[in-house]
Amino acid sequence: MFYIFCVTPLDVVKIRLQAQQKTNLNNSKCFLYCNGFVEDLCCTFHSNSRFSSPYWYRPSAHLTGTVDAFVKITRAEGIASLWSGLPPTLLMAVPGTVVYYTMYDQILHSAKKQYKLTQQPLWLPVVAGGAARVIAVTVVSPLELIRTKMQSQKLNYLKIGQAVKKQVAIQGLSSMWYGLGPTLLRDVPFSAIYWFNYEFLKQKFNQQKPTFGFSFFAGAISGGIAALLTLPFDVIKTHQQIELGEAHVGPRKQARSTYYLLRNLYQINGYKALFAGIVPRTVKVAPSCAIMISTYEYGKQFFQNYNASKAGSTF
After folding, report:
1. What confidence category does residue 248 fall into, taking pLDDT thresholds of 50, 70 and 90?
2. What is the model's pLDDT at position 181?
3. Which of 22, 84, 179, 310 is the most exposed place for a label (fewest CB within 10 A)?
4. What backbone phi and psi angles, to 5 degrees, belong to 247?
5. In this structure, are residues 220 and 298 in contact, taking their beta carbons and an 8 Å threshold?
6. DSSP states of 158-177 as a string?
7. How is this protein situated with respect to the membrane (predicted)?
8. pTM value?
9. Mapping DSSP to helix (H, G, I), strand (E, B) and coil, where does residue 30 land?
10. pLDDT of residue 112
11. What 3-state class would DSSP assign to 32?
């Protein structure tokens, strides 16, 4: 829990850097906004429109990087804004982690037993990790949606509650899983890449029962690589989920695919936009993976040894 508290500012900075890359070229939007004096519905229009945004609203300053984002967010909104979305993050942490690692271990064990595998092939952790991630992501997706919206701009819980209520009333309960597509495209390959690299390093260095230090090191490397390769899908996930509570002023087009959104973002803002937030994401994910896998391996070995000693003492 303390670790989550420490890395939440990195999440906020990452989402702000990604959110500013979002382009609204085909429609106009209304979104939640409040400065204490005016109504909280703000409409923005394109630069080529004969309309313009209200004079009292000015978009937040452009963020040029991780450090710049930390400074500008703190100055404009106060240091507490760096911990926006902390409660849903904490609520996600336990069920998401428990479901993921439990399903991963169960799938791995069942596959070995069913196919009578004496040695673990490298493809098995890839499949098990991907399948476990699908289940875990689907379970916590509504909380992920709320967290992303809270971290994208300064909003209180009343505004978030109104946005959720409005979205469910208009689009139904299934709208709380908005952004699940790019989230799965981010997290399933992430798990596959992560577990492949981690198991490869274990085999490469002959670490069938890895030490805590090795697990930490291998987990950090594997997590860093996976975070980098899946970042474009993370950007699109952010772009979709920050639309919670927004209303389209002009005619709205049908939902567009993740591939279309990736291509559109690349064509307009360039390849750098696809990797927005790379520094805070990598800095957060690499140690997170290191801590989780080393704790997981240590706990697994501890209980295996405990069960073995307990079984031996009965004879």
Report:
1. low
2. 96
3. 310
4. -125, 140
5. no
6. HHHHHHHHHHHHHH-GGGGG
7. Multi-pass membrane protein
8. 0.83
9. strand
10. 87
11. strand
